Amino acid sequence: MTLAPNFFDAQTRNWQGRLAISVDVMRELSRYSDPQDMHRIFTHRLGQLFPTTRQLTLSRRGVEKPQARITRFNLWSDTTNPYTHWDRFPIVSGGLLSSLLYSDEPRLIDDLNLFPNDPAHEYLEGQRSLLSIPIFEHGVAQNTVVVTREESSAFPPEQVPELVWMTNLFGRATQTLVLSQALQKANETADAELRDIAELQQSLLPAKPPTMPGLDVAVYYRAACLAGGDYYDFFPLPDGSLGILVADVSGHGSHAAVLMAITHSIAHAAAANPAKPGPFLTHLNANLAGRYNRHSGVFVTAFYAVFDPNKNTITYASAGHVPPRLSRCSDGSRVTLNRVQRLPLGVSPPGLIYPEFVVDWRRGDQVVVFTDGVTEAVDSNGDVFGTERIDERLASCPATADALRSAILGELDQFTNRCPPTDDRTLVVVRRT
Questions:
Q1: What does the pLDDT look like over 157-180, one tens digit per residue?
Q2: 313-319/300-308 β-pairing
Q3: Mean pLDDT of 318-337
Q4: Is residue 9's pLDDT more than 60?
Q5: Which residues contact 353 (CB under 8 A, 6 or more apart)?
Q6: Integer CA distances (angstroms), 343 to 142, 247, 355, in order
Q7: What is the separation of C-alpha 129 from the centre of its chain, rounded to a whole number of angstroms?
Q8: Cystine design at 218: which of 30, 96, 312, 402 (Cβ 3.0–4.6 Å)?
Q9: What's the CA gap between 260 and 330, in Å, rounded?
Q10: 42, HSE (Cβ side, Cα atoms, 13 Å)
Q11: Three-state DSSP state, 213
């Protein structure tokens, strides 16, 4: 690099040289993202522009007045990173270095004389000129840079203001990088933990739909985040009927995933009675409201139904869940399963009784149970998907549950232009064969 005759000469005649140096330094610094590398480059470049003999960095981190932690000294061979291992550096107490660190002001000393018992003597012996530059964080000099020369009156006072703002701007830049790295590490840790939660959650969901005489079942599940709050489950019963539970924890992410796992545990407890939808939801609510949800404000909507191909009935109960749709392909009629809606689980009193309702279930009938992540999906204009499009696909009476599931999802993908969901989506299709 070709240096201008004097970078700190702010006269108009020198602007082109100053600009060339500034651009060159900024270009080189921009190639690095590690604060330690940036400090090395900045110190080297500044040393070319403003030569010094000794350079120290003092820090208040982990100490109290009059102590000062020395995190950098140009005569050290140790290159330990003070951004990550600041507690490994020596601490001095009192004397000149403490005075410089806690003054919160730049200091210029033209004729430096140190007492032999001053802690600074070990680092600055033989130096005659000193300049200290505080680096501010939240209005306080958290760090202070100290530079010296062996001759007296070696630092021109007119250059000090520019050195102060240059050093502080660099200090803010490196601090931003340190915080960015810490945030990235925290995000990576949280992401890894969320992946673990997602794997656990996935293991709680059925591996595949059940295969039972008289029933054709298809499922779709997609979480908005790595882990979600939607939950579906199957309960094959001894009499050949099938219990199907679809639930939706308010919110999504790790909190919702944990409550989903709790709901799964309660649903599979010995005291649960999956043969009776009303008592089954009553059991879930009593445990969620009595033990887990009283103070969290989180709730769970749920729909539970027992599909009986022998009695040709569907017996269901609902806890604030979006009503499923039943299509009778024999006559083209549709039924909304909303006759026994009650409050969501976890917000109702623990003693609340959830009633159940029975509807006929004929050969060829199809039922679609879903969460609001499906019906409340929006397009680019902000319009919601709704239930009408589900009804249209139901009206076509596809030959299999999987065909109906694919038709609804195709319509949903077209409507949303395949944009990632903002809420968890679950879709369960049951067809009477």
A1: 999 999 999 999 999 888 888 888
A2: antiparallel
A3: 95
A4: yes
A5: 278, 282
A6: 55, 13, 12
A7: 50
A8: 402
A9: 37
A10: 22
A11: coil
User: H-helix or E-strand containing 359?
Assistant: strand 357-360
| Domain 193-432: CATH architecture, name and number where available | 4-Layer Sandwich (3.60)
Handedness of CA 370, 196, 183, 31 (dihedral sign): negative
Q: How far apart are CA 411 and CA 393, in angstroms?
A: 9
Strand ranges (E), 24-179: 54-59, 67-73, 91-93, 107-109, 129-137, 140-149
Q: How is the chain split into domains, by residue range?
A: 32-179, 193-432
| Whether the predicted pLDDT of 5 surpasses 50 | no
Angle between helices 160-204 and 35-49 (to 10 degrees): 170
pLDDT at 215: 96
Q: How many angstroms separate the CA atoms of 257 and 230, rounded?
A: 8
Give the other-Cβ count within 10 Å of 132's Cβ: 23
Distance of CA 409 to the CA centre of its chain: 28
172: amino acid identity, one letter = R
Same fold, 32-179 and 193-432: no
- Tell me how far apart the alpha carbons of residues 286 and 301 are, in angstroms, rounded to a whole number: 14
- From CA 151, how far away is CA 126, in angstroms rounded? 9
pLDDT digits (tens, 9 = 90+) for 361-420: 999 999 999 999 999 999 999 999 999 999 999 999 999 999 999 999 999 999 999 999
In this predicted model, what pLDDT tens digit does every residue of 295-315 receive, in sequence order?
667 899 999 999 999 999 999
Helices (H), 131-253: 160-204
* Token pair recorded at residue 69: 């932690």
Instruction: Residue 239: name the closest of 330, 153, 306 by CA.
Output: 306
**Counting Cβ atoms within 10 Å, is residue 348 exposed (0-12), middle (13-18) or buried (19+)?**
buried
Residue type at 132?
Answer: S
Question: pLDDT digit string (tens) for 312-327?
Answer: 999 999 999 999 999 9
CA distance 340 to 309: 22
pLDDT in tens, 70-83: 999 999 988 888 88
High-pLDDT (> 90) share of the chain, % = 69
When the candidates are 3.40.720.10, 3.30.450.40, 3.40.50.620, 3.40.50.1980, the CATH number that belongs to 32-179 is 3.30.450.40
Q: Which two tokens stand for residue 231?
A: 């939950």
Maximum CA extent, the chain: 104
Q: What is the pTM of this model?
A: 0.69
